[in-house]
Amino acid sequence: MVTSIHNRFNLSTDQDEQIPQRYDKIDLPPIKPVVTRVERYAGHCPCCGATTLAAVPEGMETGTPFSLNLVALAIYLRVIHAVSYRRLSRLFTELFGLAISEGALDAAFRRAKPGFDADVGAILARLRRARVVCSDETSVRINGRTHWNWVFQNDEVVIHVIRPSRGANVVAEVMDGHRPAIWISDLYGAQRGHADDWQICLAHQLRDCKFAIEAVIRSSHPE
Fold first, then answer.
1. What is the pLDDT of residue 56?
2. 128-208 adopts what CATH topology?
């Protein structure tokens, strides 16, 4: 946008004006869904009697009405930002003007899952060759029941698996017989015995030491 003072001061040329201010204004335009109606023509062969349906571009196949971009955004918000199904459904309705039920979101995620299988397999293959593996587990609620979110990682890869068990059998399943040189974890029993050497996780130790110090201070100076 350019604003001029020519008319106000009867200036004759551009050289008479100066630009003492230049700044930006940032805005977001309204985001609305784009709906593409697909009409597929069919041809009928009078000789063989076969009917041929016209091909459609990639991404326009029958099935779900939701595009790959839309599903990718939903997965990003759900996985990276931990947006619940209910809030995600409201977000699409209120921000994008697109009504998507919680069930439709869940179905979209399930359809997308096979697309990640190859990457998961590649991560597991690298983890099962690793010299050093760090691991931890924390509780997570699924359908009202306690499960365990296990993480296995090193400087190169990270993978999360959720299982109903907190036992060492989960480690055996993920590592599939591989025994690293060094295993790094907290003091939980199921985390021990999976490598030639074991390194206590210093972050856990620092947290526990801090908790112990604070407990001593509270007991020494009761309110």
1. 86
2. Nucleotidyltransferase; domain 5 (3.30.420)
Alpha helix ranges (H) inside the chain? 6-9, 68-75, 85-96, 102-112, 117-127, 168-175, 202-220
Closest to 148 (Cα-Cα) out of 174, 167, 134, 166: 166
Q: Which distant-in-sequence residues (6+ apart) come within 8 Å of 28 by Cβ? A: none
CA distances from residue 17 to 10, 24, 222 in whole angstroms, order as listed: 11, 20, 73
The pair of structure tokens assigned to 169 is 């059998």
- Chain centroid, CA 25 distance in Å: 31
Tell me the pLDDT tens digit for each residue of 11-33: 555 555 567 788 888 988 888 88
How is the beta sheet containing 145-153 ordered, strand by strand?
Answer: 158-163, 145-153, 132-142, 182-185, 197-200
pLDDT at 17: 59
Which positions ≥6 away from 112 have C-beta within 8 Å? Answer: 71, 75
Domain boundaries, the chain: 63-117, 128-208
